[in-house]
Amino acid sequence: MSEKRPIKFRILEFFLDGKAYWNYEIVSKIQEEYGMKSSYGRDSINFDIIELASGGMLKDLEQKVDESGIYKKGFLLHRYKITDFGITRASDACLRGL
Amino acid sequence: MDLKTLKKQESKRKISKGYMWALFCAIFWGIWYLPGTVVWVLNPFDEMYATIAEVSGDGMSLVVTAVLITAFNALTVMLALMLWNGVLGKYGELGRTLKEFHPCSKWFFLASIFGGPMAILGSFIAMGFIGGAFAAVAGLLYPVIGSILAYYWYGEKISKRAVIGIGIIVLGGISIYGGGLLTELSSGNVPWIGYLGGLMAAAGWGIEGAIAGKGLDIAEPDAGLTLRFLGENIIWWIIIVPILAILGFPMYSFAFQVFEPLTMLILVFAGLTFGFCYVTWYKSFPLIGVGRGQGIGNLYGFCAVIFIFLFFGDIPDWTIIVGGLLCITGSFIMFTEDSSALETLRGE
């Protein structure tokens, strides 16, 4: 992939393999790819994930408390999986031209 | 803190953030009617109106002048948004989203057609022909159109409580709208073009919200809405203004006269308030849904009436006060919705 795509596209792409991922896994990957290493960048990517979940494209499977501070100490970590609706929207958007 | 409490806290935070954005939208949107009303009596727009009215009649002159005002509104909104995206460091995302025309940005351009030439132009027409308070409340029906479209088109859930809230807001709108109309009907002098403008505002914003929701699924709101205004600027400055100029209207000669300090100030004020009303409007949708975002944003009608009263001293009719109270009641019914029902907004 030569050119970067909008961040939400890229997030959906990660989920298209059908596996469930923790938010910190996705956030750190995107941070690296898009050079958004700051905590502002981290929160902004996480907010994109939250928006995708409220839009019904990701399903929040389970949560745990971030004890070790891998993402944000004392906050909730979420594990998401793509939904059927998410697959449809992602296929419209992400797979075209790849 | 245990998992359950944290979960509850987080969900509450998300939903209250969504409602907070929507409430800010109502305040900015309400303030926008101040510069929107004032701009009509400023140079060059008042002269433009008089000049064109002599040749083409009042109605035509009003619409053409409203086009130029709306075009400048779109331009200053765009400037405000570019500044906003700069502050957020989102130029990169903006470029990436723009390039994805087929899956994504086409929705924002489509939204701009309904938002700009329909809703905003309609509002300016209503402001110029009838007045700011009317223009503000005339658009109050838009959440109904937005919610119904979102429900049928992409299956957004609307709870019974939200339906009741929206219903009460609409009753409030009808009360504010109907009061003035009845008086004018009895005096036999109804400014129909202004009322048409009000209807354009309601239908345009409702359709825009539902279309924009489709694009917002997969885009960041800040980038999305800047593209929506890029679309509107293209429509005005590259299509409609040149066409009107070719038809013989003095668009450019008046457009170059806006560089008067007071006119510029008012236009920039309009751009800032409207720009941020959109920023907050779009930000609320993914968190609380199009229907609710629009419902709470609807409090703008009441905010506008209050601001117009404070700044211009126009005392509203009792029908406007009753309507405003209904709007607040309806919005609070939606506001106090049980948060667990909002965890996922769409059916799977």
Please render the helix and strand layout as text.
The complex is a heterodimer of chains A (98) and B (348).
Chain A: H1 7-15, E1 21-22, H2 23-34, H3 39-54, E2 58-65, E3 76-82, H4 84-93
Antiparallel strand pairs in A: 1-3, 2-3
Chain B: H1 3-38, H2 45-56, H3 58-88, H4 91-99, H5 101-129, H6 132-138, H7 142-154, H8 160-187, H9 192-216, H10 221-246, H11 251-255, H12 261-288, H13 290-297, H14 300-312, H15 318-335
Question: What is the string of helix and strand elements of chain B?
Answer: HHHHHHHHHHHHHHH
Q: Poorly predicted ranges of chain A (pLDDT <50, ≥5 residues)?
A: none
**In terms of quaternary structure, what is this?**
heterodimer
**Structural class of the helix and strand makeup of chain A?**
alpha+beta
CATH architecture of chain A: Orthogonal Bundle
How would you describe the shape of chain B? Answer: globular
Distance between the termini of chain A: 7 Å
Q: Report the biggest beta sheet of chain B as strand number plus sense, adding barrel if it closes.
A: none
Secondary-structure element series of chain A: HEHHEEH
Low-confidence runs of chain B (pLDDT<50, min 5 residues)? Answer: 343-348
Report the sheet-strand fraction of chain A. Answer: 15-25%
Q: How far apart are the termini of chain B? A: 31 Å
CATH superfamily of chain A: Winged helix-like DNA-binding domain superfamily/Winged helix DNA-binding domain
Q: CATH fold name of chain A, please? A: Arc Repressor Mutant, subunit A
Structural class of chain B: mainly alpha
Summarize the biggest pleated sheet of chain A.
3 strands, antiparallel
Largest interface: A-B, 36 and 30 residues
Helix percent band of chain B: over 70%
